[in-house]
Design goal:
six-stranded mixed beta sheet; 16 strands; two-stranded antiparallel sheet; signal; secreted; alpha/beta
């Protein structure tokens, strides 16, 4: 059925609240995983999904090892509005970069390879009625939290309290739009979120009615410019513990924000196809699913896999990118194409 949380009948909403993944209340997030120059190169294997996919999450070529399945949950077939909460201090120029990326997802004005071409792979996913992910993704409402209302150190669970403050604010609250609404919490470079830099660069989940009052799909992505640009803004910055590796020039002149763009794309793609963590994912465990962007983390062009990003494009100014927005260029990871059974992107050399 189309994704319409606002019209869920009370019994279904109660079941959702009480029985869907109650065991993950303390963490309550689905995290970006995959190849990055993490400080710990040998993370602990915690789940069956890790054992199945940790060494083989990235396939530019077809793979029989990946069994992405639809688990009958809702996906975002209605027009999508991305509501942004800017947490902390943000420059106007930084906001422009992120806004244009979101506006480019549905734009037909960008030359190929384009961000909208990248979204066409996401649109291949359907709900149980056969309805595709929406072709319309627009920038929704925005709200600023310049004074760090919940401090500069957040837990995964307190992120939901930040969102509650934004949707219940006395002045200019973010709208409550469960049908097609995605909530994007973006934290400034001086904000630390639990597991940031060491394990994750972003994560997504849905809000608990017991905290926020509503079931809303959301994602958090942090600006890593001060804390760990060599990890979460890779390849535009590289870590000191990998000698000899040279960074690539970022396409918009802001290492932290250009690094965020791919993580934002990752999260929006997975929120569209798995908003309640019961739709499209691989692996046996819905508590730690392997989703359509996880499977292609680190792949940005043909031939990508492991630590090799694949064939990329170079601008006249020497900046590296792989797709065009309305006026800007971006570097965005590919996503899994379940029809072809491999990672695809608009800059593939065989298109």
């Amino acid at each position: 059925m189309p994704y319409r949380i606002a019209t869920l009948e009370p019994p279904f909403q109660a079941v959702l609240t009480l029985s869907i993944f109650t065991t993950i209340l303390l963490s309550g997030t689905i995290s970006v995983t995959g190849w990055r120059p993490w400080p710990n190169p040998h993370p602990t294997v915690n789940t069956t999904a890790d054992l199945l996919f940790a060494g083989s999450k990235k396939y530019e070529g077809s793979s029989s090892f990946v069994h992405l399945k639809y688990h009958m949950g809702p996906v975002l077939t209605a027009d999508i509005s991305v509501h942004i909460l800017w947490y902390g201090t943000w420059r106007t120029s930084q906001k422009h970069i992120i806004r244009e990326f979101i506006n480019s997802i549905s734009s037909s004005s960008a030359p190929p390879p384009s961000v909208s071409g990248w979204w066409r792979t996401v649109r291949l996913y359907t709900d149980q009625t056969g309805a595709n992910i929406s072709s319309t993704v627009r920038l929704g409402a925005e709200k600023n939290d310049r004074f760090y209302s919940h401090g500069k150190s957040l837990t995964r669970l307190s992120v939901q309290s930040v969102l509650k403050s934004a949707v219940t604010a006395a002045t200019k609250p973010l709208p409550i739009s469960p049908q097609g609404g995605l909530y994007l919490l973006l934290t400034a470079p001086d904000v630390y979120v639990e597991d940031f830099c060491g394990q994750v660069c972003g994560f997504h989940y849905f809000t608990f009615p017991s905290i926020v009052g509503y079931t809303l799909p959301y994602a958090w992505v942090g600006n890593s410019a001060k804390l760990c640009p060599g990890v979460c803004a890779y390849p535009f910055q590289v870590p000191d513990y990998i000698p000899g590796l040279k960074p690539l020039k970022s396409p918009n002149g802001d290492v932290g924000v250009d690094g965020m763009i791919s993580v934002i794309g990752h999260e929006i793609a997975e929120l569209a196809t798995n908003p309640l963590v019961n739709a499209w994912y691989a692996g046996p465990d819905p508590i730690d699913p392997v989703e359509i962007a996880d499977l292609c983390e680190g792949i940005y062009g043909t031939g990508g896999g492991g630590s090799y990003m694949g064939q990329l494009l170079a601008g006249y100014d020497g900046a590296t990118y792989n797709m065009n927005g309305i006026r800007r260029k971006f570097l965005v990871q590919w996503v899994w194409n379940h029809v072809l059974n491999y990672c695809t992107g608009p800059n593939a050399l065989d298109q």
